[in-house]
Structures are given as structure tokens and as C-alpha cells.
Amino acid sequence: MHESVRDRGDVLTLAAPGRRCGAEAGVREAGRGWHDQRVARSAAGIRATLWQRLVEFVRFSLVGGVSFALDAGALVVLRTYTPVPLAVDTAVAFALGALLTFVLSRQWVFPNADTGKPQADLARYVVLIGVGLGLTTLTVPLLARAGLDYRLAKLVASLLVALLNFVVMPRWVFRGGRPARSPRPGQLPPGQLPAED
């Protein structure tokens, strides 16, 4: 076996042919370990994120069920006891359910939502609710005119609005309460300057 001399700047090392020197081998092994660790952290992060979204979905569904019961119950009561048009009854019932959804979502469904600014969250939620209200107010009478019972039309509209809300609320309405993302390995957090040597 012939040994070769490798010059690494100020240190000469001997290595067998085809083998790396100690420091090079260590860097290579450390690099492999870092990659494996990063893959493991990524997989764990993905699992944690999926688990968190599942918990949010279950909680959101429970809140949605309670809010829908309030919304649908109020619609039936309003439709039965008021002479106003169906669109007005639908809007009032929807607003009651929406208010309950905001309070419960902020307090229980989305983690860190209650750490944001409530006024900003509420303003964004009002915009989202305006879109949902418009969708509901148009969908229920439209489906009712097409021959669907107004209660079933309300169910269809509510499912559409619920899907919209679940997607938009954590990404936009409650975004102020979300923690900043962690920097990647080797990156500095935002606003941090590199240390001087």
C-alpha cells in the first residue's frame, strides 16, 4: 500500500490511496450527519404541521357546527316570525354565526391567534365575512329559486363559506399572531447581523 502526502495548507498528512485524510473525512461525515439531521427535522416538522392542521380542522369543524346551528336556527326563526325577504333573514342569521365563529376561532381554534392585534384581526375578518356574506346571500336565494329547499340551500352555502374560511383565516385573518419562521441552518434570523471576528 502506497501512502500519499496531502498538503492542507500548514499541515501535511499521510493517507492511503483512495482514502480521505482525517479532517476531510470528518467534514464529509459531519456533512452527511447534518443532512440526515435536517431530513429528520424536516420530516418531524411536516408531521407536526400536519398534526397541527388536523387539530385546527377538528376544532374549526366543531366551532363551525355550533355556529352553523346558531345560524340555521336563527334563519328558521327569522323566516318563521318576520315578514322580511329571505335575503335579509339569511344575512342576519349569518352575521350571528360569523360573530360566534370569530370569537371561538380567535380563542380556541388557531394557536397564537390571540397574540395578534384584535382590531387588525377583526378588520380582516370583517372583509372575509363580507365575502362569505355575499356568497351566502347570493347562493341561498339562487338555489331556492332553482327548486332547492332554502334549508338545503343554506347548507350548501355554509359548506362553501366554511371551506373558504378554513383556508383564509390562519393565512390572512390571524396572520399577526403567527410566529416568524425559523431561519434555515446557516442563515441569520431577520435583523441579526453576523458576528465580527
Describe the structure.
This protein is mainly α. It has a domain at 53-177. It has helices at residues 22-81, 86-109, 118-145, 150-173; strands spanning 4-8, 11-15. The protein has a two-stranded antiparallel sheet with strand order 1-2. It starts with a strand and ends in a 24-residue tail after the last helix. Residues 1-15 and 177-181 have low confidence and may be disordered.
Which labels suit this protein?
single chain, 4 helices, 69% helix, two-stranded antiparallel ribbon, elongated, mainly alpha, 197 residues, disordered N terminus
Evaluate the radius of gyration: 29 Å
Mean of pLDDT: 77
**Overall morphology:** elongated
Low-confidence stretches: 1-15, 177-181
What is the distance, rounded to the nearest whole angstrom, between the alpha carbons of the first and last residues? 43 Å
Largest sheet: 2 strands, antiparallel
Count of alpha and pi helical runs = 4
Residue fraction in strands? 5-15%
Helix content: 55-70%
Q: Strand arrangement, largest sheet?
A: 1-2
Number of strands: 2
Quaternary status: single chain
How do the SSEs run, as a string of H and E?
A: EEHHHH
